Prior knowledge:
GO molecular function, one term: uridine phosphorylase activity
CATH class: Alpha Beta
Distance between the termini: 26 Å
Number of strands: 9
Catalytic activity: uridine + phosphate = alpha-D-ribose 1-phosphate + uracil
Enzyme class: transferase
Protein name: Uridine phosphorylase
Keywords: Glycosyltransferase, Transferase
Largest sheet: 5 strands, mixed, barrel
Bound molecules: 1-O-phosphono-alpha-D-ribofuranose, uracil
Amino acid sequence: MSLHIEAKKGDIAESVLLPGDPLRAKWIAENYLENPKCYNNIRGMLGYTGNYKGKRVSVQGTGMGIPSILIYCTELIKEYGVKNLIRVGSAGSYQPDINLMDIILAMSASTNSAINQSVFPNSIFAPTANFDLLMKTTDYAKAKKIPFRAGNILTSDKFYEDDPDSFRTWADHGVLCVEMETAGLYSVAAKYGVKALAILTISDSLVTKEKITAEIRETKLAQMTELALNSF
Ligand SMILES: O=P(O)(O)O[C@H]1O[C@H](CO)[C@@H](O)[C@H]1O
Ligand SMILES: O=c1cc[nH]c(=O)[nH]1
């Protein structure tokens, strides 16, 4: 048992899917895993382990923002020996040709967070996806004809910006979308020498202001889940 996860050693698989929303974790476990067992309910941050096509896999809610995902990933890696961490998250589109429900693979995560500044004073660390997980996911997506975009994303410390147009500088530099955890995930994975990838579904657009419902975010993200389960 760790501070925020009440699982016993061995209860958690080497590969873990990481939705921000714990109810998305429950939905994935109930709809995709054989014999799912709930191993965590501390703070309602649900975690499950089961089987998918003969592979043992876990799914763990992380909460919102870098501080929260760092707590869960650090404990998963250090206390439970997790080796593959695959975020399955929602994101806001920064580009006019990226639409609701599109799938984004985060090759890298720019950030306005200061988490790495104390580690690399006067320098900027580039949080990057693991190449093996990324290649396996793109191979699977192409074989199954699941469309995706891959590129740089922004991990932001703020969901609500004072200036609604502040995203345009990122957009002008080709950044695809915004979310709130991936730069933390890629940084902690790099520190401990494990593999990480973020697979995202566009839930809203900062360009057109459209959005999907909370119910769809919790329970209808099938393509992203299928890609994540076939990424390792
Ligand atoms: O859908 P999840 O995985 O929570 O991801 C996105 O949604 C939350 C904001 O609504 C942030 O956590 C952001 O990263
Ligand atoms: O962090 C996020 C997640 C989804 N949509 C956004 O606009 N921001």
